[in-house]
Amino acid sequence: MTYKVFIDGEVGTTGLQIRARLEGRDDIRLITLGEADRKNIHARLAAFGEADVGILCLPDAAAVEIVAALAGTGTRVIDASTAHRVHPDWAFGFPELDDALRARIASGQFVSNPGCYSTGAIALLYPLVQRGLIAADAALSINAISGYSGGGKAMIAEFESGQTDGPFVYATDQKHKHLPEIIAHAGLSRRPVFVPSVGPYEQGMIVQIPLPFLEPGQGAAIKAALADHYTGSRFVSVVSPEHYGPRIDPRRLNGSNRMELSVHGNPDTGGAVLIALLDNLGKGASGAAVQNLNIMLGLDEGLGL
Ligand SMILES: NC(=O)C1=CN([C@@H]2O[C@H](COP(=O)(O)OP(=O)(O)OC[C@H]3O[C@@H](n4cnc5c(N)ncnc54)[C@H](OP(=O)(O)O)[C@@H]3O)[C@@H](O)[C@H]2O)C=CC1
Ligand SMILES: CC(=O)N[C@@H](CCC(=O)OP(=O)(O)O)C(=O)O
């Protein structure tokens, strides 16, 4: 069986990466529009009409606009943008969080891909909040570093033209677009402080969550809970600090759909830092979209990944 897929925004950063992951597959036929038609609403609607699944790799406003235009058509959609991640009609595309969510993705018409930082933060927090190891109202901070590709074509051009040479910290006003989905899907009742940054390299991400309130010896229970939650998971694994050595390079999983979670700290003094390492363009974007596509089509979720 061959499934037809249309990527709306296929020449953008995320779109190109999804296309690269699907191109070589003989169970997928990509519907593509030429340069002249790629922003033509009639051509795009016709492509969605033909597709088994459409994938939106568009800025938020363009994603909202095309979803409105598709209303009532029954087209199945994966949205890579931020627009629908806390919308009740959309399944949050993070199948590793729980089986009910995986089933919702499999049967759903609308699936929203998580944001890159959110993928790391939610992966760490959800199992721990669910098991009562971190209180939903704990005072948390989330710190992160991303490669500049996380900012899409515009930021890539800034770095590659020499206009910016980075690094920089940003979104310190606590209005980052990922905060609502982190709060909703990690199950938090108190707003965390989120401090992302961009490094002068293209791709790769680390998300860190310090736990200064952890008592001596409690880190082992945190690690065990994460390991239990992700047992059998194909793409999310829990590793020991020794796996990295003294320096952790955010680029080490580039090109893959994998994410590593780890718990670091001194068991004698208490306090710890949770770390998620992923490719912002892999498990943080296009890899996750392909994984969700496979699940929606009832295929092996690791195909092409
Ligand atoms: N980069 C990343 O790490 C991640 C990005 N995302 C999300 O994915 C989405 C795409 O991001 P990204 O690929 O980085 O962005 P880019 O800016 O690289 O690509 C967006 C693409 O959408 C096209 N586009 C814009 N408006 C329209 C329209 N009305 N009709 C058709 N095409 C349109 C753009 O065209 P043109 O080329 O002419 O500008 C561009 O090719 C965003 O919502 C982003 O938030 C999600 C996870 C990670
Ligand atoms: C470095 C950088 O600018 N990153 C982007 C997030 C990229 C991403 O994954 O977010 P979406 O999926 O929500 O687009 C930002 O902070 O806005």
What are the salient characteristics of this protein?
Rossmann fold; 6-stranded parallel β-sheet; 32% helix; single chain; 305 residues; binds N-acetyl-L-glutamyl 5-phosphate; 7-stranded mixed β-sheet; Dihydrodipicolinate Reductase, domain 2; alpha/beta; 13 strands; 2 domains; binds NADPH dihydro-nicotinamide-adenine-dinucleotide phosphate
Produce a short descriptive summary:
This protein is of the alpha/beta class.
Number of strands: 13
What is the residue-mean pLDDT, rounded to a whole number?
Answer: 97
N-C termini distance: 19 Å
Query: Which strand-content bin applies to the residues?
Result: 15-25%
Count of helical stretches: 9
- Stated plainly, the CATH topology of the largest domain is called Dihydrodipicolinate Reductase, domain 2
Principal-axes geometry comes out as: globular
CATH class of the largest domain: Alpha Beta
Seen as an oligomer or otherwise, the chain set is single chain
CATH architecture of the largest domain: 2-Layer Sandwich
Biggest β-sheet description? 7 strands, mixed
What value does the Rg take, in angstroms? Answer: 19 Å
InterPro entries: AGPR, AGPR_AS, AGPR_dimerisation_dom, AGPR_type-2, NAD(P)-bd_dom_sf, Semialdehyde_DH_NAD-bd
Function: Catalyzes the NADPH-dependent reduction of N-acetyl-5-glutamyl phosphate to yield N-acetyl-L-glutamate 5-semialdehyde.
Keywords: Amino-acid biosynthesis, Arginine biosynthesis, Cytoplasm, NADP, Oxidoreductase
Active site: 116
